[in-house]
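Session log. Operator J.P. requested a structure for one protein chain; no other inputs attached. Running the standard single-chain path with C-alpha coordinate output.
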Amino acid sequence: MSAEQNFLPPVPYALPMVRPHILCVEDDAEIAQLLADVLEENGLSVSCVGSAAGMDAVLGRGGVDLVVLDLMLPGEDGLSICRRLRATSAIPIIIVTARGEQIDRIVGLEIGADDYVSKPFNSRELVARIRALLRRAAAPQPATTRERGLAFAGWRLDPAARELHDPEGVRISLTSVEFDLLLAFCRHPGRVLSREQLIELIHGGAAGPIERSIDVHISRIRQKIEADPRDPVMIKTVRLGGYVFTPGVETA
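Structure written below.
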Protein backbone atom coordinates (compact mmCIF):
# COMPACT_ATOMS: atom_id res chain seq x y z
CA MET A 1 0.00 0.00 0.00
CA SER A 2 1.67 3.24 -1.13
CA ALA A 3 1.96 6.41 0.91
CA GLU A 4 -0.02 8.18 -1.82
CA GLN A 5 -2.91 5.76 -1.41
CA ASN A 6 -2.93 6.10 2.36
CA PHE A 7 -3.28 9.87 2.47
CA LEU A 8 -6.42 10.12 0.37
CA PRO A 9 -9.07 12.33 2.02
CA PRO A 10 -11.76 10.50 3.99
CA VAL A 11 -14.74 9.25 2.00
CA PRO A 12 -17.97 11.04 3.03
CA TYR A 13 -20.24 8.68 4.93
CA ALA A 14 -23.05 9.05 7.44
CA LEU A 15 -21.96 6.92 10.39
CA PRO A 16 -24.15 5.89 13.31
CA MET A 17 -23.62 7.50 16.72
CA VAL A 18 -21.57 4.51 17.87
CA ARG A 19 -18.56 4.06 15.59
CA PRO A 20 -18.23 0.55 14.13
CA HIS A 21 -15.32 -1.33 15.70
CA ILE A 22 -12.90 -2.90 13.20
CA LEU A 23 -10.35 -5.47 14.34
CA CYS A 24 -7.25 -5.57 12.12
CA VAL A 25 -5.16 -8.72 12.43
CA GLU A 26 -1.83 -7.75 10.85
CA ASP A 27 1.67 -8.60 12.10
CA ASP A 28 3.48 -5.88 10.13
CA ALA A 29 3.47 -2.95 12.56
CA GLU A 30 3.88 -0.32 9.84
CA ILE A 31 1.00 -1.65 7.74
CA ALA A 32 -1.15 -2.04 10.86
CA GLN A 33 -0.57 1.60 11.78
CA LEU A 34 -1.37 2.76 8.25
CA LEU A 35 -4.58 0.74 8.31
CA ALA A 36 -5.54 2.17 11.69
CA ASP A 37 -4.89 5.73 10.48
CA VAL A 38 -6.93 5.31 7.29
CA LEU A 39 -9.90 3.68 9.03
CA GLU A 40 -9.95 6.12 11.93
CA GLU A 41 -9.79 9.07 9.50
CA ASN A 42 -12.94 7.61 7.94
CA GLY A 43 -14.87 7.48 11.20
CA LEU A 44 -14.21 3.89 12.27
CA SER A 45 -12.91 2.63 15.62
CA VAL A 46 -9.89 0.34 15.18
CA SER A 47 -8.01 -2.26 17.22
CA CYS A 48 -4.85 -3.81 15.78
CA VAL A 49 -3.25 -7.08 16.84
CA GLY A 50 -0.49 -9.17 15.30
CA SER A 51 -1.53 -12.74 16.04
CA ALA A 52 -4.40 -15.16 16.56
CA ALA A 53 -3.94 -14.95 20.33
CA GLY A 54 -4.29 -11.17 20.23
CA MET A 55 -7.38 -11.47 18.06
CA ASP A 56 -8.99 -13.96 20.43
CA ALA A 57 -8.38 -11.63 23.36
CA VAL A 58 -10.07 -8.68 21.65
CA LEU A 59 -12.98 -10.77 20.37
CA GLY A 60 -13.42 -12.17 23.87
CA ARG A 61 -14.18 -8.68 25.13
CA GLY A 62 -16.95 -8.32 22.54
CA GLY A 63 -18.02 -5.32 20.51
CA VAL A 64 -16.16 -6.13 17.28
CA ASP A 65 -18.19 -5.47 14.13
CA LEU A 66 -15.80 -6.69 11.40
CA VAL A 67 -12.40 -8.38 11.11
CA VAL A 68 -9.74 -7.37 8.56
CA LEU A 69 -7.51 -10.43 8.47
CA ASP A 70 -4.05 -10.78 6.94
CA LEU A 71 -3.27 -14.27 5.62
CA MET A 72 0.45 -14.29 6.37
CA LEU A 73 0.69 -14.38 10.16
CA PRO A 74 3.10 -15.99 12.63
CA GLY A 75 1.78 -19.13 14.30
CA GLU A 76 -1.80 -19.76 13.24
CA ASP A 77 -2.18 -18.41 9.71
CA GLY A 78 -5.06 -16.37 8.36
CA LEU A 79 -6.80 -19.22 6.56
CA SER A 80 -6.88 -21.30 9.73
CA ILE A 81 -8.13 -18.32 11.72
CA CYS A 82 -10.84 -17.62 9.15
CA ARG A 83 -12.03 -21.23 9.21
CA ARG A 84 -12.14 -21.21 13.02
CA LEU A 85 -14.00 -17.89 13.20
CA ARG A 86 -16.59 -18.92 10.66
CA ALA A 87 -17.32 -22.16 12.52
CA THR A 88 -18.58 -20.18 15.53
CA SER A 89 -19.51 -16.71 14.28
CA ALA A 90 -21.11 -14.82 11.39
CA ILE A 91 -18.93 -11.74 11.95
CA PRO A 92 -17.95 -10.18 8.60
CA ILE A 93 -14.39 -11.04 7.53
CA ILE A 94 -12.28 -9.33 4.87
CA ILE A 95 -9.03 -11.13 4.13
CA VAL A 96 -5.97 -9.15 3.06
CA THR A 97 -3.12 -10.87 1.26
CA ALA A 98 0.10 -9.95 -0.51
CA ARG A 99 0.14 -13.30 -2.26
CA GLY A 100 -0.32 -13.27 -6.02
CA GLU A 101 -1.97 -16.66 -6.42
CA GLN A 102 -5.71 -16.50 -7.02
CA ILE A 103 -6.08 -19.85 -5.21
CA ASP A 104 -5.38 -18.23 -1.82
CA ARG A 105 -8.21 -15.78 -2.32
CA ILE A 106 -10.62 -18.46 -3.49
CA VAL A 107 -9.74 -20.73 -0.55
CA GLY A 108 -10.35 -17.83 1.82
CA LEU A 109 -13.80 -17.29 0.37
CA GLU A 110 -14.55 -21.01 0.38
CA ILE A 111 -13.89 -21.25 4.12
CA GLY A 112 -16.12 -18.32 4.92
CA ALA A 113 -14.53 -14.92 4.29
CA ASP A 114 -17.00 -12.36 2.98
CA ASP A 115 -14.56 -10.48 0.75
CA TYR A 116 -10.88 -9.89 0.09
CA VAL A 117 -8.42 -7.21 -0.99
CA SER A 118 -4.88 -7.68 -2.26
CA LYS A 119 -1.79 -5.74 -1.23
CA PRO A 120 -1.01 -3.14 -2.37
CA PHE A 121 -4.59 -1.90 -2.16
CA ASN A 122 -6.36 1.41 -2.48
CA SER A 123 -7.54 2.67 0.89
CA ARG A 124 -10.79 4.00 -0.61
CA GLU A 125 -11.62 0.54 -1.89
CA LEU A 126 -10.97 -1.07 1.49
CA VAL A 127 -13.11 1.49 3.31
CA ALA A 128 -15.93 1.07 0.77
CA ARG A 129 -15.87 -2.71 1.14
CA ILE A 130 -15.89 -2.47 4.93
CA ARG A 131 -18.87 -0.13 4.86
CA ALA A 132 -20.79 -2.31 2.40
CA LEU A 133 -20.40 -5.32 4.71
CA LEU A 134 -21.28 -3.30 7.82
CA ARG A 135 -24.46 -1.99 6.21
CA ARG A 136 -25.69 -5.49 5.39
CA ALA A 137 -24.60 -7.19 8.59
CA ALA A 138 -25.56 -4.55 11.15
CA ALA A 139 -28.41 -2.60 9.59
CA PRO A 140 -30.78 -4.82 7.62
CA GLN A 141 -33.85 -3.07 6.28
CA PRO A 142 -37.15 -3.91 7.97
CA ALA A 143 -38.97 -6.68 6.12
CA THR A 144 -42.12 -5.87 4.22
CA THR A 145 -45.28 -7.87 4.83
CA ARG A 146 -44.47 -9.95 1.77
CA GLU A 147 -40.97 -10.66 3.07
CA ARG A 148 -41.64 -11.44 6.71
CA GLY A 149 -40.97 -15.05 5.88
CA LEU A 150 -40.08 -16.76 2.62
CA ALA A 151 -40.48 -20.52 2.32
CA PHE A 152 -39.01 -22.87 -0.27
CA ALA A 153 -38.86 -26.68 -0.33
CA GLY A 154 -39.51 -26.84 3.42
CA TRP A 155 -36.87 -24.22 4.24
CA ARG A 156 -37.70 -20.83 5.76
CA LEU A 157 -35.79 -17.59 5.20
CA ASP A 158 -36.49 -14.69 7.57
CA PRO A 159 -35.38 -11.35 6.01
CA ALA A 160 -36.09 -9.38 9.20
CA ALA A 161 -34.00 -11.59 11.50
CA ARG A 162 -31.62 -12.57 8.66
CA GLU A 163 -31.96 -16.23 9.57
CA LEU A 164 -32.32 -19.46 7.61
CA HIS A 165 -34.06 -22.52 9.08
CA ASP A 166 -34.02 -26.00 7.56
CA PRO A 167 -37.14 -28.20 7.21
CA GLU A 168 -36.62 -29.46 10.79
CA GLY A 169 -36.53 -25.91 12.13
CA VAL A 170 -32.79 -25.89 12.80
CA ARG A 171 -31.09 -22.55 12.23
CA ILE A 172 -28.38 -22.74 9.55
CA SER A 173 -25.47 -20.32 9.82
CA LEU A 174 -24.89 -18.06 6.80
CA THR A 175 -22.38 -15.30 6.23
CA SER A 176 -23.84 -11.90 5.34
CA VAL A 177 -22.98 -12.38 1.66
CA GLU A 178 -24.46 -15.88 1.59
CA PHE A 179 -27.68 -14.62 3.18
CA ASP A 180 -27.99 -11.77 0.70
CA LEU A 181 -27.40 -14.08 -2.25
CA LEU A 182 -30.01 -16.57 -1.06
CA LEU A 183 -32.47 -13.73 -0.42
CA ALA A 184 -31.87 -12.45 -3.97
CA PHE A 185 -32.61 -15.92 -5.33
CA CYS A 186 -35.78 -16.21 -3.25
CA ARG A 187 -36.97 -12.85 -4.53
CA HIS A 188 -36.42 -13.95 -8.14
CA PRO A 189 -37.30 -17.68 -8.30
CA GLY A 190 -37.22 -19.29 -11.72
CA ARG A 191 -35.31 -16.38 -13.25
CA VAL A 192 -31.82 -16.82 -14.70
CA LEU A 193 -29.53 -14.36 -12.92
CA SER A 194 -26.09 -13.54 -14.29
CA ARG A 195 -23.15 -12.93 -11.97
CA GLU A 196 -23.34 -9.23 -12.78
CA GLN A 197 -27.05 -9.15 -11.88
CA LEU A 198 -26.39 -10.93 -8.59
CA ILE A 199 -23.65 -8.46 -7.69
CA GLU A 200 -26.03 -5.59 -8.47
CA LEU A 201 -28.87 -7.16 -6.45
CA ILE A 202 -26.79 -7.71 -3.32
CA HIS A 203 -24.61 -4.61 -3.49
CA GLY A 204 -26.66 -2.06 -5.41
CA GLY A 205 -23.58 -0.90 -7.26
CA ALA A 206 -21.46 -0.56 -4.09
CA ALA A 207 -18.09 -2.25 -3.62
CA GLY A 208 -18.37 -5.95 -3.08
CA PRO A 209 -17.11 -9.37 -4.11
CA ILE A 210 -15.65 -9.64 -7.59
CA GLU A 211 -17.50 -11.72 -10.15
CA ARG A 212 -15.42 -14.85 -9.48
CA SER A 213 -16.22 -14.81 -5.75
CA ILE A 214 -19.96 -15.11 -6.49
CA ASP A 215 -19.29 -18.69 -7.64
CA VAL A 216 -17.53 -19.50 -4.38
CA HIS A 217 -20.30 -18.08 -2.20
CA ILE A 218 -22.94 -19.98 -4.18
CA SER A 219 -20.93 -23.16 -3.74
CA ARG A 220 -21.03 -22.61 0.03
CA ILE A 221 -24.80 -22.04 -0.03
CA ARG A 222 -25.24 -25.29 -1.96
CA GLN A 223 -23.26 -27.14 0.69
CA LYS A 224 -25.78 -25.94 3.25
CA ILE A 225 -29.11 -26.41 1.45
CA GLU A 226 -28.62 -29.05 -1.23
CA ALA A 227 -29.01 -32.79 -0.55
CA ASP A 228 -26.07 -33.37 -2.90
CA PRO A 229 -24.02 -30.18 -3.48
CA ARG A 230 -22.22 -31.90 -6.38
CA ASP A 231 -25.56 -32.35 -8.17
CA PRO A 232 -27.59 -29.30 -7.09
CA VAL A 233 -31.30 -29.16 -7.78
CA MET A 234 -32.25 -25.88 -6.08
CA ILE A 235 -29.53 -23.55 -7.38
CA LYS A 236 -28.75 -24.68 -10.91
CA THR A 237 -25.95 -23.39 -13.12
CA VAL A 238 -27.10 -22.12 -16.51
CA ARG A 239 -24.34 -22.44 -19.08
CA LEU A 240 -23.21 -18.99 -20.27
CA GLY A 241 -26.11 -17.50 -18.34
CA GLY A 242 -25.51 -17.62 -14.60
CA TYR A 243 -27.75 -19.32 -12.03
CA VAL A 244 -31.42 -20.09 -11.54
CA PHE A 245 -33.27 -20.81 -8.28
CA THR A 246 -35.72 -23.60 -9.07
CA PRO A 247 -37.97 -24.07 -5.98
CA GLY A 248 -41.27 -22.28 -5.69
CA VAL A 249 -41.15 -19.54 -3.06
CA GLU A 250 -44.10 -18.62 -0.85
CA THR A 251 -44.74 -16.18 1.95
CA ALA A 252 -44.32 -18.10 5.20
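Operator note: The chain is about 40% helix and 20% strand.
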